[in-house]
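Q&A FORM
Asked by: J.P.
Topic: structure of Hydroxylase

PROVIDED:
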Amino acid sequence: MTVELSSSTVPNSFADILEAARRVAPRLRERADDIEKHRCLPADVVELLRGTGVFRMAVPRSWGGPELNSTEQTQVIEALAMGDASAGWCAMIGMDTPIYAGYLEESVARELFTDPDLITAGLILPVGRADRVPGGYRVTGRWGFGSGITHADWVVAGCQVYSDGEPERGPGGMPVNWRVMLARRDDFEILDTWHTTGLAGSGSRDYTANQLFVPEERSFSLARPRREGPLFATDSVLRNMPGVPLGIARAALDLVREMAGTRVERATGLPWTDTYRVQMAIAEAEMELGAVRYAVYGSLDRLWDRLASGVEPAPDERAAAVLARTNSFRVARSIVTRMVDLVATAAIYRPSPLDRWLRDLTTMCQHVIAQDQVIQSAGAHLLGGVPQNPFSLGLLP
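REPLIED BY: S.T.
REPLY: Here is the structure written out as tokens.
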């Protein structure tokens, strides 16, 4: 597949994309209230993100892209999330376009994805139904949590495949034939369902289809990538998710450390810089953030190296990446909760972003990837048992 870069001004290397993300983060912070108020990313914010190169991060070098590894992708998402959580979340979701392209025939991918900065949204889990018909499928269903669907170019929809009214078995004897359908955003009806206390600006709305025809070549199985390498392993769309909670926790700590330089403890008259409880709260939060961040990036590096060398990762290596990912959400929420408690009433008044960050983290911690079933799945994989969520481990059911 040959990709013509849409603009020579869009960064196309890790260093340049990361620098661009860090440069726009303060602008995203300035727009955070508007993003939350509109319950989706305004058009100019979308273009601001597009201009950083974040949506082309996974475009392979052979296609003219930067081909960033999982660690590099996560660092970019982390930098954007320091500006605004919803923007970071949508960037993390929207950059999956070239990953999905790697599951399509090259000629089809070339036809559909001519711009490296296209954005894809949608739920890949098989909650919809695809009835096999000549030339493709008739797709019906309702999918939730379509983060970024309000500004996406393409939408994916996970389906269970049926033939003659009966469910098909999947590749290799899988109990379900799970295929992901790809269609234009306008092919779906988008429902205004995203009324939440956190991540409000992600526009994670429900969407539906009723007997939508999707050609066979615009569908794919996660069990059968067309290209080789770590970018196209089953869990590749999950690996950069920790960037969002890590970025929020870092932003919260930086904010409170800056505040500490001018605040005074009311009861004692001591400056915060000399107050024991403040010193302990900051140090413990830094300790925990440093540990989980090290675990996230270290496990990502090891997993990538294994996959790049063509060696099946050991159970401990897969589990380490999954547990660090899940823990990043929980630790970040704990850190921001403690920062809110430390700042107390000042945290609930604007322009302090602490209240919004806490709501954002509480919402994203309800994502399936941060749930107990993922921890159970890691434990089961380590013990040779049955994971409840094998997909989180990069395994198919």
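FOLLOW-UP: Residues 276-308 form the longest helix (33 residues).
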